[in-house]
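Predict the holo structure. Ligand: NAP.
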Amino acid sequence: MSVTIPAVKLNNGQQMPIVGFGVFQIPAEQTEKAVSEALAAGYRHLDTAASYGNEEAVGRAIAASGIARDDLFVTTKLWVQDAGEEPTRAAVDASLQRLGLDYVDLYLIHQPYGDYYGSWRTLRSLTEEGRVRSAGVSNFHSDRLVDLAERTGFTPAVNQIETHPYFQRQTDQDVMAGLGVQHQSWGGFAEGRNNLFTDPVLSDIAAEHGRSVGQVVLRWLTQRGIVVIPKSVRPERMAENLDIFGFTLSADELIRIAALDTGASLFFDHRDPAMVSALGSRRIHE
Ligand SMILES: NC(=O)c1ccc[n+]([C@@H]2O[C@H](COP(=O)([O-])OP(=O)(O)OC[C@H]3O[C@@H](n4cnc5c(N)ncnc54)[C@H](OP(=O)(O)O)[C@@H]3O)[C@@H](O)[C@H]2O)c1
């Protein structure tokens, strides 16, 4: 199937499709099928992570697809256990091996914990070596993002953070725009929390356009210039989540959606000491 997906331009000139396919919580044994179906639906941007345990399956689907490497945009992420200069180099090598790729388009520091300044130095070298096309971060609050960008002089291309109608992150997006960092949403549907798919405001707007709530949410995010990576294991939803460019939300509709913001996470705050401790000590390999 041929689908045209607009791209955003990162701060190093690289193009990134504004819609990708996320594979968090897809069990490894189901991931090859899901990614193959997503590629058949027209996705060309894939988002995985070392900690998801499914990079090999993503790699098998890429290899089986026959799609030219240049036509794909592949992201993976560094787990906290591998923070630091040398461990990061080894972790990138291991991810590339599992993915069966010579380079990734985007490599993110998954969490703002551990020696991520050491990781960042290594990622800068790896972008120069070409093993990583763009380097970025995830789950960085704006204070940490500013410090990393300004103290190192190497600005992340992307910050991937929880962003959905109940946690809209406008202030963070403004900080990112000031730095030249592309805002990427994870959990764009809040994984369905807060009854997002039956939200009355979103349902009314969806009905006005003859679209689904999911499409309204993804259109709202992309109209804000935010890159999205919806996850689904169902081919009909994969197609639905890509088909979001045939309508535009009005200024009035944007205001109604803006009013849904609670300003707080529906998951957890990455500054919560209990989470810093729990995630920081999680191990994904020996
Ligand atoms: N950097 C990070 O720390 C971080 C954290 C979380 C996620 N992520 C990334 O962001 C991606 C997306 O986030 P997420 O997977 O947490 O959640 P999400 O995309 O917000 O929501 C996924 C859920 O929505 C359902 N769904 C998908 N499309 C739908 C539609 N059109 N209508 C109704 N239901 C629909 C899916 O069910 P079915 O599968 O049954 O369709 C699944 O239960 C992840 O896959 C991952 O790549 C990153």
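Residues 15-279 form a domain with the TIM Barrel fold (CATH 3.20.20.100). Strands lie at 7-9, 15-17, 21-22, 45-47, 73-78, 104-109, 132-138, 158-162, 182-186, 227-228.
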